[in-house]
Design brief:
21% strand; alpha/beta; two-stranded antiparallel ribbon; seven-stranded mixed sheet; 350 residues; 11 strands
């Protein structure tokens, strides 16, 4: 088992390894004195791991209740959040109790935001069961729900008290869902580690997945520790996301998975920036080949006008400027501030 400590204002450990669900009760008992919790999961994950997690918690003396939310991006909504608040109230969850997010990124984001706001804040544990959640969304404390205007526009920072990433859960993922997680994995290679990017270019990440997860998490840990509240360096973690979120909205939330949208966003911004001479020649092609090797798309037929109008609502925009992330070459990233006209001109090059 790997243990990576995140030293934010509220420090916590990320545990990575096989067979961790069977002893999650014991692991959780090491970080809390409470004996009452509420598990939030979705139908698919519940059918696979719900009873295993409940059994482990019960054996460690926890009194656990469980709520199962619908699968998919639509659960990141105010409507589902209110259902969750009511469930917690009906089951007498108090400020001394805690929540457990058991599932992928949607469950983690929803549960984290609920934990941050219910009773003005309760503790929560992340138990991510998808590759995307294990390498990215379960770490760092960003929580959010979606509104009609865009993705993750309502949220806050709330660090978990523990993250338990059982790599055995990845064996039940379909090829498509595993590939979706690789979009975020490749992002880490692009922004901070050329050596990781090279490892991923062969499309054989499954052969060394625990090491790859640990490297991605370590990169995110370092960035988050330097900039917990996303005012500077942490913005590099959004490489590909400005376009990616726009593509998700254009296609309809839930139509295209997040990791695949980010994959297209990474390539498209790199291609445009390379045409402007801001990126080392050939970088876009290297990224394209890596995405293809990992069964990921690299381009969307969204028009530049649509991409512009759907992306200027991004959280990194100010009144008349927008900050984008550009990778000059693999492993090297920079935050670039553009006027809205400069941004529109850039999009015309895609």
């Amino acid at each position: 088992m790997r243990k990576i400590c995140v030293k934010t204002a509220s420090a916590y450990d990320i545990l990575i390894g096989k067979g961790l669900l069977d002893k999650c009760g014991e692991l959780v008992s090491n970080v809390t004195g409470s004996k009452k919790c509420a598990i939030v999961t979705d139908k698919t994950v519940d059918s696979l791991y719900g009873e295993k997690v409940l059994d482990s918690l019960n054996k460690s003396g926890f009194n656990a209740v469980k709520i199962v939310v619908p699968c998919g991006e639509k659960s990141k909504s105010h409507q589902q959040l209110i259902c969750l608040y009511n469930f917690l109230s009906e089951n007498d969850i108090t400020r001394s109790d805690f929540l457990i997010a058991l599932g992928g990124g949607v469950v983690g984001d929803l549960t984290g935001y609920c934990a941050a706001t219910y009773l003005r804040g309760v503790d929560y544990v992340q138990i991510p069961t998808t590759l995307l959640a294990q390498v990215d969304s379960s770490v760092g404390g960003k929580t959010a729900i979606n509104i009609e205007a865009g993705k993750n526009l309502v949220g806050c920072f709330k660090q978990p008290i523990l993250v338990i990433a059982d790599t055995d859960t990845l064996s039940t993922l379909s090829h498509d869902i595993f590939a979706d997680g690789m979009g975020e994995v490749i992002k880490y290679g692009m922004i901070r580690s050329a050596s990781l990017f090279e490892k991923l270019s062969g499309g054989i990440a499954k052969e060394n997945i625990e090491d790859i997860i640990a490297e991605c998490v370590s990169i995110k840990r370092d960035v988050v520790q330097n900039d917990e509240f996303d005012t500077g360096e942490r913005m590099i973690l959004n490489f590909g996301h400005t376009f990616g979120h726009a593509i998700e909205k254009y296609m309809g939330y839930g139509t295209i998975p997040h990791g695949k949208a980010v994959a297209m966003g990474m390539y498209m911004i790199t291609l445009a920036a390379e045409k402007q001479g801001k990126v080392q020649k050939g970088t876009a092609e290297k990224l394209k080949l890596c995405l293809e090797a990992n069964s990921l798309p690299f381009f969307s037929d969204i028009s530049s006008d649509s991409l512009y109008s759907l992306s200027i609502g991004d959280k990194k925009r100010t009144t008349d400027k927008i900050r984008i992330i550009i990778c000059h070459q693999t492993g090297k990233s920079e935050i670039v501030t553009l006027s809205l006209k400069e941004y529109k001109d850039l999009l015309e090059l895609i």
